[in-house]
Amino acid sequence: MKAIFLKYTLLAGILVAGFSCTKLDETFYDRGTDDNFLKTEDELNAFSNGAYAKLRGYRDSYWKMNEVTTDETTVPSRGADWNEGGLWRVLISHEFPITHQYINDMWNFIYRDGVNPVNAILQKLEGSSVVLPTKDQVIAQMKVLRAFHYYLAMDAFGNIPIVTSFEQTEPPKNTPRAEVFTFIEKEIKDNINALPATLDTKNYGKVTKGMAFMLLAKLYVNAEVYTGTQRWADCIRMCDSVSKMGYQLEADYFANFSTRNENSKENIFVVPYDAINAKGMMLHYLTLHYNNRYTYGLPSSPWNGWCTLKAFYEAYNDGDKRKTMFLVGQQYAQDGTPLKTEQGAPLIFSTTIGDLANATQTEGVRIVKYEIEKNTPYSDQNNDLVIFRYADALMLKAECLLRTGQAGTALALVNQVRARDFETANPITTLTLDTLLAERGREFIWEGCRRQDLIRFGKWNGAWQFHPADQDFRKLFPIPQAQLDANPNLVQNGGYK
Amino acid sequence: MLKHLIIMKLSFFIVLLSCMQVAATGYSQKHISLNMKDTEIKKVLDRIAGQSDVRFLYSNRKVDLQQRVSINATDESLQVVLAKVLSGTGFTYKELEGHLVVIMPEHTAWENIKVKGHIAGADDHASLPGVTVQVKGTAIGTLTDENGNFSLDAPSGGTLLFRYVGYEPLELPVKANMDVQLKKSSSALTEVVVIGYGVTQKKDLTGSIVSITPKEFNKGIISNPVQVLQGKVAGLVISKPGGNPNGKVSISLRGASSLSASSQPLFVVDGIPGIDINAVPPDDIVSIDVLKDASAAAIYGSRGANGVIIVTTRRGKEGAPQMSYSGYIGMEKMSNTYDVLNASDYRKYLKDNNIDAAAFDLGASTNWQKAITRTGISHSHNLSMSGGKDNTRYSASVNYLNNEGVVLNSGLERTIGRITLDQGIFDNRLRLGLSMNYVGEKNRYQGTDPDGNGDNRIWEQTIAYNPTAPIYNADGTFFEKLDINDNYNPVALANQIKHQRALNRFIGSAKATYDITSHLTYDLLLGMERASSDRGLYYSKESPVIEGAGSNGTATRASKTWDNKTLETYFTYNQQWGKNVFKATAGYSYQNFFTNSMSAGNTQFVSDIFSYNNLGAGQGDQPAVSSGAEENSLVSFIGRVFYSYNDKYLLTGTVRRDGSTRFGKDKKWGTFPSASLAWRITQEPFLQNSSWLQDLKFRVGYGVTGNQEIQNYKSPLTYSPGGKVLDNGRWVTSYQIGQNENPNLRWESAAQFNAGFDFTMFKGRLSGTLEYYDKRTKDLLFNYNVPSPPYLFPSMLANVGKISNKGVELSLSGGIIEHKDFSWNASFNISRNYNKILSIANDQFKSDAIYDGTVGARGLTAVQIVKVVPGYSIGTFYIPHYTGVDANGNQQFEDLDGSGTFDFRSDSRVAGNGLPKYQAGLANSFRYKNFDLNFLLRSLFGYQIFNATDLVLSDRFSRLPGRNAMAKYADSNIKGTYVSDRFIENGAFLRLDNFSLGYSIPAAKSKMFANPRVYISGQNLFVITKYSGLDPELPIDGLAPGIDNRNVYPKTRSFALGFTVNFK
Asked: Which long-range contacts (CB under 8 A, 24 or more apart) does B87-93 make?
């Protein structure tokens, strides 16, 4: 008996001791950590590529907000559709609530998907002992990409926080807009020489010298807005630098927006999309009527939302090939059958929009600037979203020339860009700031620069349809309430409460 | 052999001793001298006994000693004297050891007879398993089996004594067939309650534990075993919205105490924590113990913050082999439908509004809600057997459930097989128990599965689709009219989307208990669970949805396996001296959870013939593939001491120290202590002899429990594949950081104070519990906003907020009428919970409010209607105030901030709360002779519902005629779908949740069957509510409960016919 007792006490003791494991380190199977990841060249490359993957968020944040707040595009509520508690309607009227979700989305895109990942990438790259032949170039590209994001932030929000280290934990304060400008300018200039200069597929969709020059041109043309100091001459220099890179105007305006626009010689900086590998190019879904699916053989119904305003549409001459991007009037299926609305009425897009809050299904001009590939099984398209293109370099140069009293040269540049749009030549005869702004509108609709242009040309606070004249402080978006809540060191932009 | 005989003899002797009267007490043995004339034999024997040391035994019934005899003897031996006395009387005698002499009739032999019998409760006729049956005054005895049957050999003329915990003992003379009914005793204080790492008696409890036995379970079509508890326990709210056989059940105990971490209580099945309750068939459950307060749950400290539900299943008992069957067949129908325009209403609408009927009147009349549903037929069968001899016991059962859903092509089929084997060795000092449990489940989903996979469009289409559309075209294909955006024939959806899952689960456990000394026991439990699921989803090419025709068929196949290992080991010490009782438990626990998953999908199929069974047949440009693997472990040290003095003052102290891999590097350990005291006031002299109060106990306790139910790997910086990037002309996978690093991620902990009274009065006719609790959860795990920059992501999982749940709970139960033929028992419980968010910010994390809860409809996806803000309860609706319409039918809302313009966010106010504050349940049980009737009324009240279904279907202008709308709005002039308090409704309801009428068929003479019983049961027979939607019972978990988003499987009403029987 005693033996049994001993035996089992011993057994129990062994069991307790044996299983009294207190090791609680996590074991990772399907994800990497600092202990095992970023140890090879491939891993480092894949990690720094992540910054470009996140650039696809640009379309649904900065691009969106710089369209629907302007006279180019608006989003009427059609019954329940596109209502969202009035979220869209206050964008064109500039009555931005500080809690507006899309404004916060834009902030989050810039920092969460732009600045912060680049800070992480730079820290890992710079701290890595792995020999990476392209290390200096990648670091320069990352720094200019970060500068691009800071440029978006400065443009949208003005005095914004600057953080350049992934190690920082202290919540940053706002940096005055002019200082942000100086920071961005310096970052680009410091790194531009290390950027790749070639226009080949190798650097397609990535930060290149051409992109950096264009970014500087954008900085300088808006310098007065950002800093109070005009930099027209610097802008011209940058536009010229872009020209020297070898970009060319495409003979066909729409070649820049086709499903194969990676072949464009005009596009300088794009966000590449792919129906399979990089989904998200669904601009056609934003604007087309539900039953336009039969026009293009789409796999599902589009969302019947975004339209251009009547005045903007009518600012195109009838001979202007660019006007063909708009859908008005009766819509047809591919076989020629006239389409109907859900109410059974003929699907005829009107140019007018009556009540923004209660629009009908057919009101508003639709925008099909990017080619739609028909009869694909994918809702997503292959067109790459254009951020910078060469035509803008020419137009910016023209603007700076005009603003510095060289209207003649400027006019020639504008007409150089415009020439391809007409069978019968239809040049602009007199170039004023107003005609230039209008031409910029026609040329760059849906390229995310209209808000910036309206501000620079002093028209942002003027009245247009659905937009009563408003106050100066609306030139900046409010810093989102969620960000102020999270970071007490941030100060709201003047005028917003 | 010899020894055996002696035992037999001895037992015989004891039997005789107990059923005979002792005639005399002996004197010293000597020869006897006596001279008596015409004297009763009894007196003669008394005289003999007076002169000797013998004692006489006889049965009064069998031996009439009134006869008179004469005797004259001088110094003669006992034998000679007795022969003279009994000569001619018809009696004889027999000497036994120990100077005993039995007087008995001549020519008779003493015999054992075979007694067979059945024991049931007097009040409800329910069979009582485990009743002790003993031949009075002997060690001969047995226990009733699980069906209340017993058999043993007992001496005729003997007496049987029946004893059972919680019932009055009963003595009856031995008969061959005995049908015994036991009455409930005045107190159930000696009932055994499972407390985690051990059991205790109810009287010794110091924490808040409610024990529910099968007799109290809800009956009917039970697809999730936890449904048997619905409405039975104060403070435990169980909500199963809709009649989906595969639907998720949301459970909350004492309020919502977490923001993002799970609020579900921890389930412990036969000692293994974290087992899926679906692995246990209700028929095999012996008891469910709900550990409500911290002092009770602290023994499961790490996961006890939401309470613990301990399920104990049946194991074999000693006795003859037993076999029983129970089963039911049931039917289910949709209990309510949405009141949308029917075909004739719709035609009238077209006419009234001058709409071209040719485009919209499609010529048929279809009730789509009926078209996608059917009468669901369900059946369940449970066959079990058990037995045991000496120290070996076994049990086995097979359970089969086929629960056909009321919606086409949905259902649940489940088979559970269980085997347990218990063996005692070394004189039963070491007890080994093995159990094997297999669950095979086949789910056919309609709508999404509980994880959100699948397709939910059918619910919306069913209430939106044109009521004049036919289901089929003339050629038998499904009718479709695709000129209305996203409108699809609901019946086609139900048939063209196939979504099924097969689940196989094995649970094996081995337990060893060793009595090291009579005071010290060692327990070791090893458990292993392996589950694997295989899910397939296929959209037919015929289906016009994008995944169907749009992709030429879409197939997905996903598999997942779970491997859970458990080790529980502990020592229990038990000591009693004088009036002091001391018990202690100390142990160690280790659990490891490993899951891995894999999923693949393809599109572009040439044919539908393969469904999801041949993914390679698809020709999609890029088949989807993914896989993952995760692991987490929990390590715990547990300790508990119990001390009681004089059965009057009781003290329990518990501490558990837990380590979890899920938390930050230096924050992995948490300590969860608790202490509780109880005072049994009725043990005090001044109450001890109270005629009306049998038991009164006051309990008070305080303790801390933890919650770690977050995802794995949320603390460290991790790298995962991100989107693809065009790199040198090729699409390559990029990598990205997955989350902000939070090395401080730690336990969420809930400190709970609990005080309560337990009472039993009127000789057990009324008993109850009144309790108060105050539970404060701190370090709430949630994704809080952080400044970004510098943080990579603008939110991170962190421990920040505080939340409070306070409440009172009252449970009463009583035997209102107890009569031989008729009885009425009732139990009632009501609970009130006060939920309040105390804070969602600290020095590091600043957040004024968190918004949540959306209406899943176009144009409303960005509108969040629930605000999580300090000072208010979880689930607070924060929306604009509707003031009416203007002349054009435009809705008007109050300009609450006085800004002159309307902004949804700044012009919102508190408009109600979706979290039920009260739950009440009333269970009644009647018995009349062989009939029994049980029903349960259940109510949730004190909450509101945001009727999003009504909202979405309210705007006839944007819906009709393309999409259907609620009939009541066909003439409405109100335009637009805007979120406001216009759609807030009272959610209170009273439901006749469960009903059963049973008849116990008399079968005493049957040689094969025992206790046959038939019953009919009904579920959800009626509901009284002001709520205008389909059903007011909505999920109660998450931050935004109480939003009726028209995306639920329809609620059902069901009836079942059941039968149970034991085999002899």
From this structure: B89/B41, B91/B41, B91/B63
Per-residue H/E/C for A102-136:
HHHHHHHHHHHHHHHHHHHHHHHHHHCCCCCCCHH
Average pLDDT of span B357-369: 92
Give A 136-195 residues with CB within 8 A of chain B. 161, 163, 165-166, 168-172
Burial class (CB in 10 A: 0-12, 13-18, 19+), A39: middle
Q: DSSP secondary structure string, B411-438?
A: EEEEEEEEEEEEEEETTTTEEEEEEEEE
pLDDT above 50 for B634: yes
Burial class of residue B1026, CB neighbours in 10 A (0-12, 13-18, 19+): exposed
- Identify the closest residue of chain B to A200 by CA–CA distance: B728
Decide if pLDDT at A15 tops 70.
Answer: no
Please say whether the beta carbons of A268 and A210 come within 8 A.
yes
Name which of A175, A107, A85, A67 is nearest A481 in CA terms.
A107
ipTM of the complex: 0.92
pLDDT attached to residue B28: 39
How far, rounded to the nearest angstrom, does the alpha carbon of residue A338 sit from its chain's CA centroid? 35
Which residues in A lie closer than 8 A to residue B728 (C-beta atoms)?
201-202
**CA atoms within a 13 Å half-sphere pointing along the CA-CB vector of B552:** 15
**Cβ–Cβ pairs < 8 A, chains A and B:** 285
**Two tokens at B395?**
């049990």
Q: What is the pLDDT of residue B9?
A: 41
What local confidence, expressed as pLDDT, does residue A9 receive? 60
Q: Which pLDDT belongs to residue B58? A: 66
Residues sharing a CB contact under 8 Å with residue B553, sequence separation 6 or more, in sequence order:
B538, B539, B540, B541, B603, B604, B605, B608, B618
Q: How far is residue B700's CA from residue A66's CA, in Å, rounded to a whole number?
A: 63
User: Following DSSP, what letter does each residue of A365-399 receive, concatenated?
Assistant: BEE--S---TT-S-SS--PPEEEEEHHHHHHHHHH
Of A22, A278, A482, the CB nearest to B785: A482
Residue B171 CB neighbours (<10 A): 11
DSSP three-state, residue B584: strand
pLDDT band at B190 (very low <50, low <70, confident <90, very high): low
Q: What is the pLDDT of residues B503-543, one digit of tens each?
A: 999 999 999 999 998 899 999 999 999 999 999 999 999 99
Q: With a CB-CB cutoff of 8 Å, which residues 665-694 of chain B face chain A?
A: 668
Chain B residues with CB-CB distance to A483 below 8 A: 787-788, 794
**Partners of residue B751 on adjacent β-strands:** B704, B776
The pLDDT value given to residue B138: 59
Cα gap B369→B1049, rounded to integer Å? 11
Nearest CA in chain A to B545: A300
| pLDDT tens profile B579-593 | 899 999 999 999 999
Which residues, other chains included, contact A134 with Cβ-Cβ below 8 Å and sequence gap of 6+? none
What are the C-alpha distances in Å from B857 to residues B336, B948, B1036?
22, 9, 21
Both structure tokens of B878? 């924060």
- A253: which DSSP letter? G
User: Lowest mean pLDDT: which of A378-387, B103-112, B862-871, B1041-1050?
Assistant: B103-112
Burial bucket for residue A251 (CB in 10 Å: 0-12, 13-18, 19+): exposed
Q: Please, where are the H alpha helices in B236-302? A: 294-297
Q: What is the per-residue pLDDT for B189? A: 60
Q: Note which residues in 269-308 of chain A have CB less than 8 A from chain B.
A: 272, 274, 276-278, 290-291, 299-301, 304
Contact A377, A299 (CB under 8 A): yes
Q: Give the contacts of A86 (CB within 8 A, at least 6 positions apart).
A: A77, A357, B902, B903, B904
The full DSSP string for B137-187 is: TSS-EEE--TTSEEEEEEETT-EEEEE-TTB--EEEE--SEEEEEEPBPS-
Q: Closest Cα of chain B to A17: distance in Å?
A: 10
